[in-house]
Amino acid sequence: MENLKSSDITLRVGLDDKGIPKRLTWKADDNPNKDEFIESKAFLVSMFDKETKDTMKIDLWTTDFQVDEMNRFMYQTLKGLADTYHNATKNTKLANDMQKFVDYFAEEAKIFEKQ
Known about the structure:
2 domains; about 30% strand; 5 strands; globular; alpha+beta; single chain
């Protein structure tokens, strides 16, 4: 096995008595404040399995995560996915098509009206 540098990312989920996420925090070895957990209201994690070629997902959000926050989170995530797709594949046409949906989503969710 190759001698690779590694970095751990830790996700911590605080649950209420019904198993519902109440507090989400994370920390990473490469973060300048690597010993401190940083609070978040939601996270989405997707991993592509090398063997099965399936995507495994963990999608969690806290009970105080508001709908307008979820809309903004989804908008930023979708925008990031379009950028990532383009960077990874250089498929400008599909990336632009994805971005058109992102723009449509922002309009329908009224992302920019509340500024």
